[in-house]
Amino acid sequence: xxxxxxxxxxxxxxxxxxxxxxxxxxxxxxxxxxxxxxxxxxxxxxxxxxxxxxxxxxxxxxxxxxxxxxxxxxxxxxxxxxxxxxxxxxxxxxxxxxxxxxxxxxxxxxxxxxxxxxxxxxxxxxxxxxxxxxxxxxxxxxxxxxxxxxxxxxxxxxxxxxxxxxxxxxxxxxxxxxxxxxxxxxxxxxxxxxxxxxxxxxxxxxxxxxxxxxxx
Length: 216
Known about the structure:
By secondary structure, the chain is an alpha/beta fold. It folds into three domains: 14-119, 3-Layer(aba) Sandwich (Rossmann fold); 120-151; 157-215. Helix content is 43%, strand content 16%. It is built from eight helices and seven strands. The protein has helices spanning 22-31, 47-50, 53-56, 89-101, 139-152, 157-172, 178-194, 201-215; strands at residues 14-18, 37-42, 63-68, 81-84, 106-108, 121-125, 128-132. The strands form two sheets. A five-stranded parallel sheet has the order 3-2-1-4-5, with helices on both faces. The longest helix has 17 residues, at 178-194. 23% of the residues are buried.
């Protein structure tokens, strides 16, 4: 049936990571850019996990806390999402059962049947985020698609999207039909692509005025 790809704001949300090794570290690395408050709990926090701290120093909204001890069920209280990445299958199962019963989103590494959400393969360029999922069936396929998307994306697409975000309110204020506003936005986006994203907001505003005169 497939999983619907919700894009959720996890900035400031409490995430609990059970496991302190390489696999758990990869999950933390993916989450870092989105501003969550993560707590990693494991009897041993490996160096690869501790290295992720530097990613959180770049974002004041995010935080990463280490608890080097055995995991307890009480650690899940108040969690907004949970990742079970231990090498103890029974513990991962208990975590999944607790979260499922409490309607807490949970991801159990390498066990799709115990997951209520999957980690997508991500492509990130500025404000552009592309998530790729195979319903947990083929991470290799998801990785291949990610690389192909990265290869075909225009240069400076992140800058283009930022510019479009700045100009969009001006377009939406126009006293014009929705189809006309959509056409104007399309022309401005094409203009940015033609310029390879090397456009200032002032230049884009000038182009906006010209496009309005032509379209309305």
